[in-house]
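Title: Prediction job returns without error message
Component: structure pipeline
Severity: low
Priority: P3
Assignee: unassigned

Description:
Job completed but the reporter wants confirmation the result is attached to the right record. Sequence as submitted:
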Amino acid sequence: MIISKQERKWLWIFCLVVIVLTTIPYFIGFSAQNDQWVYTGFLFGLEDGNSYIAKMLIGQSGFWLFRTPYTIEPQKGFLAFLPYLLLGKLASPPDVHTQLVVLFHVFRWIACLCYIWATYDFISVFISQPAYRRLGTILAVFGGGLGWLSLLGVSHWWRDGLPLDFYSPETFGFLSILGLPHLAMARALLLWGLARYLRPRAYRNKVLSVLVNDGGWLALGFFQPLTIVVGGVVIGTHLVYQTISFLLLKKHNPNIIIWQNIRHDFWRALWAGFFALPFLIYNFLSFYFDPFLSSWQKQNLILSPPPKDYFLAYGIIALFSLVGLVSIIRKRLAEEYSLVWLWLMIFPVLAYAPYQLQRRLPEGVWTAWIVLALVGLENIRSKWKMIGYGILSTMLVSAILLLIGGIGAVSTPGLPLFLKRSEVEVFKFLYENAPADSVVLALHSTSNAIPAWAPVRTLVGHGPESIHLAEVLPKVKEFYSNFDRPEEQKQFQRNYHIRYVFCGPEEADYGSCMFDEKVGLNLIIEMNEYKLFEFVEMEDK
């Protein structure tokens, strides 16, 4: 796994290109701001994007443990989302939100660098030619499936008409580096961990060797603990395969070298487990015994699509991977490439495991597909190679469409990627005046944005994190529509400890926002069509 100086130079240039390309849409979004509109800082997944900024704001407010602001349920605090909490501590007034968004994208740039270098390192374990290593890295970053065909009138091929290319960061990789830095960093640490498991780096200091080769598994727990499970399953499958192979061959051809290799792999796996297991145990016990986390886990459903969707995602590269697998078998190199083809074999098991986050479990398998596809490309006849390159180039179309679509979405200010400046001014008023952890009532989309601007809590706003969302959201809507039943509104306020009521165009659609004086609401700020009320009779008075 030797990487030359020329390869490292290419990697730095490629990293710069990727960072620039993926930053252009955001730059355009910020440039499009004007007196009427403020850019949120995101291109897709705005609900999750706001939640990341809200987590950073929690850190900026002085907290070290995560407590979601999207519910009023009691919480003990949980060691999660630590990178976002730590980044938040780098921001300070004034204009905290802008600083947090900038820090988010700095994190994204760092994650891009790590993702690209880790991918190149992992591919280099199996592929010796620099040209193919580069091609594999490009595919890992920009590659996708046949999702672009959905724009040609065949969207019914996919469940809900949406291809994996455009919503599943774990299936490919581009979405992660475009807007989900913790997932990009988690994959980088996974690939580095697997690369060091297969080809550990040697240092004179044994402690340093262990930290470099296995310490990343501990860091992985802070970015995406579930990815540790993926790495454990892949390594465990590899060890089982090696052990069975050795036992079958031992009778006919005893080979002490093979056994020594297996023994070394077991020791490396044990060291990796030493770093990874404490975090896994902590997560398991927390989600099992903590009532809040248990409720959160039950609501957090990320299920895999039908197998047909995966076929449309991986169909093209699977053809090349099949050629690669045949070549490996013919050349008797199955042992050398065993980790990647075993990873592909257990892919269906991971994708459809009986687990509520099953779509997350194929994380990183895209890189395994690429490695075998590169082997296939290396072994096809020269006259077919150009055709192969042409076919593989179609896999870049989805990323191009995402970039073009992102640029188009932010070129002209408008909802939902932009917020009205008047609304933002009300949010800033909350940041400057509302006591920490005050409960603000608003409808779902507004409740999602508010904690990204002020350290307050809302009843709804985020699917998984808003506990009992299906029960609470109708009650929130009912509050705004019960303008002729002030006693019920007052009781609702007492039940949920609400201090502030936000009223914008969305809330006004359910009523006039002209509350009866019996409700006890006092208008404290009005910015055009946005109003903020405060209950003058709090429950503790």
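Comment from assignee: result matches the submitted record. The longest helix spans residues 256-289.
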